């Protein structure tokens, strides 16, 4: 008989996958395999790879297939069974748990993870009340007139205190807020902050 009382301990490894619902070359770079990654696709879908460490002693306390199924049940209850939020896979590898998820829209990501994510054009962001300011090119030049980049795309994403995140987009990054580190033409790292942060990435 499984000792399910231990599951909440390892469930932190599927942190954003399900039960955090309580709150729940060509010059391109590949997403990091060491930290969690959010990848923005051209069709607007969001791919989320969640990576967390877990202790060897916890392996005996859970079955990853059962956890995945329970997680999907919880997600379905949030999304109304629309398949807007899907756990694509969950696996244990090299002392880590790796969960791959797909969200149909940024709104679905926000609903699931209790973290803001907007993806669209700069014009659309402005129309929805998002502020696209204090952004800089790779050489440090400030972009002060956002109407010049009105038709470019932007990702506005929130991270929580102490959270590190790799954000990967499908085209060349033009401007970013000053709280990210560029990791390639289409990739940035948001380092863990001492408080919640909003980061901005403008790309073609």
Which key terms come to mind for this protein?
six-stranded antiparallel sheet; 4 helices; seven-stranded mixed sheet; alpha+beta; globular; disordered N terminus; single chain; 13 strands; 204 residues
Description:
The chain has helices at residues 7-11, 64-79, 106-113, 122-127, and strands at 37-40, 46-53, 85-93, 96-103, 117-121, 135-136, 142-143, 153-159, 165-168, 173-177, 181-184, 187-190, 197-203. The protein is globular and about 50 Å long. With 204 residues, the chain is an alpha+beta fold. 17% of the residues lie in helices and 34% in strands.
Quick description:
By secondary structure, this protein is α+β, with helices and mostly antiparallel strands. 17% of the residues lie in helices and 34% in strands.
Query: Could you say which structural class the secondary elements and strand pairing correspond to?
Result: alpha+beta
First-last Cα distance: 54 Å
Q: Average the pLDDT over all residues and give the rounded result.
A: 81
Could you estimate the helical fraction of the residues in percent? 10-25%
The rounded Rg comes to 18 Å
SSE arrangement, N to C: HEEHEEHEHEEEEEEEE
Beta percentage is 25-35%
Number of strands: 13
Number of helices: 4
Poorly predicted runs of 5 or more residues? 1-32
Strand order across the largest sheet: 3-4-2-1-9-12-11
Shape summary: globular
Largest sheet: 7 strands, mixed
